[in-house]
C-alpha cells in the first residue's frame, strides 16, 4: 500500500463528491485530501513542507488539478508548482472539462504530467480514476527526493 496521499484541487462540491465516491469504490486505500482553489493547493503543500523534516515529508503521490477555480486558477498553480525546487517533482494531472487543443498544449508547456478531460458518466469516471491511480502509484517511476 502506498503511504502517499493524493491531493485533489476541485472547486465544485458535486465533482468532489463524485471523485471521493469513485476512489472509494475502486478500493483506494490512500488518503485523499481536497482543496477548493489554487491558493489552498499552495498552502496545503507549504504546510506539509514546513511541518516535517525531509525524510518524513508526505507530499502527495500526485495532484488532480482542475483548471477553472476561484482565487488562483489551475494554470497559475501549475506554473508555480513546476518552478518550485521540491513541488516540481509531484506529478500534476490536469483534470478538467476543457477540451481545447490550445489549452491542452499550454498546460503541457507549463509542466503538466498528464491532461485528462473529465468523463461524463460515473462508470467512465471509475475507469479514469483506476487508470490514473494505477499508472502513478504502480507503473510510473518517480524520484523520491
Describe the structure in your own words.
The protein is an alpha/beta fold and 145 residues long. Helix content is 45%, strand content 14%. It has one domain: Rossmann fold (3-Layer(aba) Sandwich), CATH 3.40.50.2300. It is built from five helices and five strands. A five-stranded parallel beta sheet has the order 2-1-3-4-5. Helix 1 packs across helix 5. It starts with 5 loop residues before the first strand and ends in a 6-residue tail after the last helix. Keywords: Phosphoprotein.
Strand and helix order:
EHEHEHEHEH
Major beta sheet summary: 5 strands, parallel
Backbone shape: globular
CATH class: Alpha Beta
CATH second-level architecture: 3-Layer(aba) Sandwich
CATH topology: Rossmann fold
Low-confidence stretches: none
Radius of gyration: 14 Å
Q: Estimate percent helicity.
A: 40-55%
Bin the strand percentage.
5-15%
Count of alpha and pi helical runs:
5
- Widest sheet: strand ordering: 2-1-3-4-5
**How many E-type strands?**
5
Mean pLDDT across the residues is 86
Put the structure in a nutshell.
The modification 4-aspartylphosphate is found at residue 66. Pfam families: Response_reg. The protein has helices spanning 13-25, 38-51, 74-83, 101-110, 122-139; strands at residues 6-9, 32-35, 63-65, 92-96, 114-117.
Amino acid at each position: 500500500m502506498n503511504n502517499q496521499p493524493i491531493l485533489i484541487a476541485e472547486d465544485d462540491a458535486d465533482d468532489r463528491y463524485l471523485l471521493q465516491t469513485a476512489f472509494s469504490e475502486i478500493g483506494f486505500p490512500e488518503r485523499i485530501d481536497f482543496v477548493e482553489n489554487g491558493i489552498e493547493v499552495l498552502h496545503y503543500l507549504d504546510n506539509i513542507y514546513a511541518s516535517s523534516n525531509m525524510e518524513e515529508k508526505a507530499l502527495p503521490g500526485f495532484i488532480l488539478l482542475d483548471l477553472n477555480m476561484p482565487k488562483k486558477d489551475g494554470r497559475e498553480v501549475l506554473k508555480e508548482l513546476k518552478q518550485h525546487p521540491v513541488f516540481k517533482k509531484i506529478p500534476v494531472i490536469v483534470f478538467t472539462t476543457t477540451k481545447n487543443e490550445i489549452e491542452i498544449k499550454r498546460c503541457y508547456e507549463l509542466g503538466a504530467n498528464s491532461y485528462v478531460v473529465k468523463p461524463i458518466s460515473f462508470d467512465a469516471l471509475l475507469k479514469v480514476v483506476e487508470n490514473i491511480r494505477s499508472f502513478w502509484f504502480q507503473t510510473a517511476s518517480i524520484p523520491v527526493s
